[in-house]
Each structure stands twice: as structure tokens, then as C-alpha cells.
Q: What sequence folds into this?
């Protein structure tokens, strides 16, 4: 599993995932911090990531795409 941590969560979470043996990356290290949620979802889908977020609208975005 690969986890993409959204901007609204701490980059420190990558250490916790790594300690658990899960590959993770914080969006701020690979994309524009001002990117639209749809761009983050598209990147995650194209690159095999699961999005870890605190945003309530991600479910809606997924349902509409």
C-alpha cells in the first residue's frame, strides 16, 4: 500500500507510516501546496496511492469521477 498524505495533515505522519512499514509521501513534497483536491485525487489514482485526508469533500470528488 502507498499512502498520499493530504496538505491538511502533518508531514510528520510519513514517519508513523514508515515505522509501520507503509510507503507514504506528503503532498507538499511532490505537488503544489495550492493544488485543487481533484489534482491530488488524479495523481493518487494514476500512481497507485490511497489518499489520507481530513477533508470531508474527498468522498464526493471520488463519487463524481
A:
Amino acid at each position: 500500500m502507498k499512502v498520499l498524505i493530504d496538505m491538511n495533515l502533518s508531514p510528520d505522519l510519513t514517519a508513523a507510516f514508515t515505522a509501520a512499514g507503509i510507503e507514504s509521501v506528503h503532498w507538499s513534497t511532490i505537488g503544489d501546496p495550492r493544488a485543487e483536491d481533484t489534482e491530488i485525487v488524479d495523481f493518487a489514482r494514476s500512481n497507485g496511492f490511497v489518499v489520507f485526508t481530513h477533508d470531508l469533500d474527498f468522498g464526493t470528488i471520488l463519487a463524481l469521477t
About this structure: Residues 37-47 form the longest helix (11 residues). The CA atoms of residues 59 and 65 lie 10 Å apart. The two ends are 22 Å apart (CA to CA).
